[in-house]
Design goal:
two-stranded antiparallel ribbon; mainly alpha
């Protein structure tokens, strides 16, 4: 039985039990990895964490969601593990909070059919997709020539089906896509390998399939290392593969520019520039020190922004951090904004400046500040202020011990898995308030 199926069997239970033990029951760690896994600080708390009971009570009889009440609860204490996946679908704009049960069921079915069609296109080109196996070695050369004897992690029939002997691909899009399939496979087998969930090869293949289909559909970005870190929790939390794909696709709308890299620029360049401005305003002494160390471009913060702190926090704490960030940045127009744009193209921000009090409550408290103050020119993601809060917690050590960029990287690297998500968020909000 998959861990997701098991979770569904205990979904209504235990919020009063020992928090750490309860979370471990939902995201079990392989015994041999426990000594190396960072300590989890998140614990479901009665009256603060969004529980299954409170979540179900937030819907009207026909299925409309009281998003304002849900956001307040998430911002106070995160989401109980039993309902994380379904709540994320709303936070990420997969569904409109004002839609009915019937409308959402219809939309979900349409999306599942669309995913099946895209996956079918991919299977015709590479039959390993959807087989429960994955590819770990290149299957084509840069010019589209088939590579024989690839170490594809599947049976020989599927290997032969992946590329016929005289198969030469002329379409650049197809070549580009086939070139990344093995890289996706290599990343997948390294992603969250401490979780019992990914001991199951079928679950690894599910993650590979979702990423492979996404790379085909969003060919402008394709696949970039780090995407597996964003996608893995969706595959873990949502049992249906198509639902996991759409949850990931909507998450990527928020961060896909992070993965747009060229020889002259990196995707998070603008965020790093904003980070430099923020530190210069709130802690000019630290900013000057980093500039003297030739770190004024803040490239040492690249990874934190790229994969949204997946390496700086434990697995569970990273999920808590994400959902609180998404709740704080929630915009009630997000669903309509996404539906009116092409796949992967929209950002989650809009230009709303005047809203009534009732609508204002439907914004997350970070987003609400921008709407209330009208500081649209200083608009930037909460993630940037989170990095600023991390730097501030290490202010004294950085000023005292960092004699070069290697020292900065080491000091920040020593924090990996040991940060407190709640404290970091609170500090980020203080810095944001000071900055605007």
């Amino acid at each position: 039985m998959s861990s997701t199926s098991w979770v569904r069997g205990v979904a209504g239970s235990l919020i009063n039990n020992s928090g750490t033990e309860e979370v471990e029951a939902y995201f079990p760690t392989r015994p041999e990895c426990r000594a190396d896994v960072p300590k989890t600080r998140f614990k479901p708390r009665v009256g603060k964490t969004l529980s299954a009971r409170r979540w179900n009570a937030a819907f009207s009889r026909d299925g409309r969601l009281d998003i304002a009440g849900v956001l307040r609860r998430i911002q106070r204490g995160g989401i109980h593990p039993s309902i994380k996946g379904v709540v994320w679908e709303f936070l990420l704009g997969c569904f409109d909070s004002n839609s009915t049960f019937d409308e959402r069921n219809e939309l979900r079915q349409q999306r599942r059919e669309q995913y099946a069609a895209w996956k079918g296109e991919c299977q015709k080109m590479v039959p390993v997709i959807g087989s429960g196996k994955l590819i770990l070695s290149p299957i084509v050369t840069d010019d589209g020539q088939a590579i024989q004897d690839s170490s594809i992690n599947s049976d020989s029939q599927l290997c032969e089906g992946a590329m016929s002997k005289n198969d030469v691909v002329a379409d650049k899009k197809v070549i580009q896509w086939k070139l990344v399939l093995h890289q996706i496979g290599l990343d997948v087998v390294r992603t969250d390998r401490a979780l019992v969930f990914y001991e199951n090869e079928a679950n690894q293949a599910k993650l590979w399939d979702v990423l492979a289909v996404y790379a085909w559909v969003d060919n402008e970005i394709g696949y970039v290392q780090g995407m597996s870190d964003i996608c893995s929790p969706m595959v873990n939390l949502l049992e249906n593969e198509a639902d996991a794909f759409w949850c990931f696709e909507h998450a990527m709308r928020r961060v896909r520019e992070n993965f747009r890299c060229s020889t002259s620029s990196i995707g998070v360049q603008s965020q790093l520039s904003t980070l430099a401005q923020i530190i210069n305003v709130v802690d000019p002494k630290l900013h000057r020190h980093l500039e003297e160390l030739d770190g004024g471009e803040y490239l040492f913060a690249f990874r934190m922004l790229m994969v949204l702190f997946r390496r700086e926090f434990s697995y569970v704490d990273a999920l808590y951090l994400w959902e609180v960030m998404w709740a704080m940045e929630y915009n009630p127009n997000i669903f309509m904004l996404y539906e009116s744009s092409s796949l992967g193209a929209a950002t989650h921000k809009d230009g709303a400046t005047t809203v009534n009090d009732k609508l204002l409550k439907q914004y997350g408290k970070f987003e609400r500040q921008y709407v209330k103050t009208g500081h649209m020119d200083q608009k930037s993601a909460l993630a940037v202020f989170l990095v600023a809060s991390v730097l501030e917690t290490k202010n004294k050590q950085l000023l005292k011990e960092a004699k070069g960029l290697d020292d900065v990287v080491k000091i920040l690297g020593d924090m990996t898995g040991n940060l407190d998500a709640k404290k970091a968020l609170n500090e980020a909000l203080k810095i944001h308030k000071k900055y605007i």
